Amino acid sequence: SDGLFASAPTFDTIGFFLQDATGLETVAALLCNNWQAVMPDARKSKPVLGVPDGPYLAKATPEGRAAFESQVAGLNQAGYEVRRVEALSDIEEIVQRNKLIHSAEMAQFHADWFARYEVRYRPRTAQLIRDGQGVKTGDLIAARAECQQLRQKIEAEMTGNGIDLWISPSTPGPAPEGITTTGDPIMNLPWTQAGLPAVNIPAGYAQNGLPLGLQLVGTFRGDEQLVAWVPPIADIFSGSYSRALI
Hints:
By secondary structure, the chain is α/β, with parallel strands linked by helices. It contains 9 helices and 7 strands; from the N terminus they run βααβαβααααβαββαβ. The protein has a 5-stranded mixed β-sheet with strand order 3-2-4-6-5, with helices on both faces. A two-stranded antiparallel ribbon has the order 1-7.
């Protein structure tokens, strides 16, 4: 993490972009400590995929949801079993917890700089820090513990339903035009909060010509198996797009 300008250490994640999925394991093995290569038999197996139906998936726009359902159909046609499970029904609580932790940790990390250079911060960032200054220590500790509970709940749903990977839209809809915003992170937010590894593969275009993606989420510290399963899935959509990111 040398050289990282922290925002919220609980959520900050090092990621990378690739031209395609073939180099995922090479790069991931360099970034992850104690990387353990997946055995050949485990690479050949097809993971059971889970769709988290409910309020979380409803955050996708009509166009994003339609594209996702088309992607699910493509996975079914390629021989992947997809199981639909009611999950992340507490997405609004997850979002509020994210705001609390993000603002509180940002206020802590930027305390000295903000005291000296407040006027130089963008208004939105400055307000986030001010909000964080008002968070009580006990509330922050409790929220961090709830992140662990979220992870346990998600993984229990995976185990109970025989799911190996979750799949969802990468974003609610098309990428935003311009450089003023990176868009709404809601589709990635719960997985990051739970500390689960995620890979996003391009899987087509929206009507405005901008890309749409498919997100695959594995188990905690299950990066190796997730990465091993990605290339064959990415191949299914390679005709519609050709780049990948993790």
